Amino acid sequence: QSVLTQPPSVSAAPGQKVTISCSGSSSNIGNNYVSWYQQLPGTAPKLLIYDNNKRPSGIPDRFSGSKSGTSATLGITGLQTGDEADYYCGTWDSSLSAGQVFGGGTKLTVL
Amino acid sequence: QVQLVESGGGVVQPGGSLRLSCAASGFTFSSYGMHWVRQAPGKGLEWVAFIRYDGSNKYYADSVKGRFTISRDNSKNTLYLQMNSLRAEDTAVYYCAKDRFREIDYWGQGTLVTVSS
After folding, report:
1. What is the three-class DSSP state of B109?
2. B25 exposed, middle or buried (CB, 10 Å; 0-12, 13-18, 19+)?
3. Secondary structure of residue B90 in the 3-state scheme
4. Residue B29 has what DSSP assignment?
5. What is the tens place of the pLDDT at every residue in A4-32?
6. Ordered DSSP codes for chain A
7. What is the pLDDT of residues A78-109, one digit of tens each?
8. Residue B38: is it exposed, middle or buried by C-beta count within 10 angstroms (0-12/13-18/19+)?
9. Burial code of A17-53, b = ≥16 C-beta within 10 A, e = fewer?
10. CB neighbours of residue B117 within 10 Å
11. What mean pLDDT do residues B66-75 have?
12. Fewer CB within 10 A of the terminal residue: chain A, N end or C end?
């Protein structure tokens, strides 16, 4: 069971918009930056969003991130078939068992 | 550009040991913390361990504490993960990852560890 909670799957048609939620607590999301990662089939994860809402160089502005309290959200607009992947949220947890924590992952299907 | 190349994976019997290495290039290795993250077949990401840039502090997931040891050699730009008392549930792809202020910004391609008799 993951420390951060994500929906197992989301789906939408090409060109549409989708959001993926990530819920945590005050020891993780509530007091640390959130990152989002995209994992295409058979490949390593890739950073999509860092510091809650910043995009690394080369990531299109179709991808956006936000955070409020102990929850974060990844948004993807103008969906493309190439966006089909698993998406993970991650952050640092400052509790007694300090360390990086991840959500269980969300499988995005572009219908 | 940042490159992280893991090696050392393979098949090992339950109770055995294995040492993973991660060769880093394209950035000042000695200035950044580093993580190991694993992914069991068909499962999600599980953080394993973190080491500060100078090796002064190390953090471990409860599932590996006392069995795994993270270390680094800044003179060789290399990160290590010594894995002892391996169990079937340790079977996974192990990723080396670069830290950016407690966030992961770069990942290696991973190395597969299979614990099986």
Report:
1. coil
2. exposed
3. helix
4. G
5. 999 999 999 999 999 999 999 999 999 99
6. --SBB--SEEEE-TT--EEEEEE--TTTGGGS-EEEEEE-TTS--EEEEBTTTB--TT--TTEEEEEETTEEEEEE-S--GGG-EEEEEEEEE-SSS-EEEEB--EEEEE-
7. 999 999 999 999 999 998 888 999 999 999 99
8. buried
9. ebebbbbbbebbbeebbbbbbbbeeeebbbbbbbebb
10. 9
11. 98
12. N
Q: Do B109 and A44 touch (CB under 8 A)?
A: yes
Contact between A33 and A94 under an 8 Å Cβ cutoff? The reply is no
Average pLDDT, chain B: 97
Residue whose structure tokens are 């819920």: A23
- In chain A, residues with a C-beta closer than 8 Å to the C-beta of B64 are none
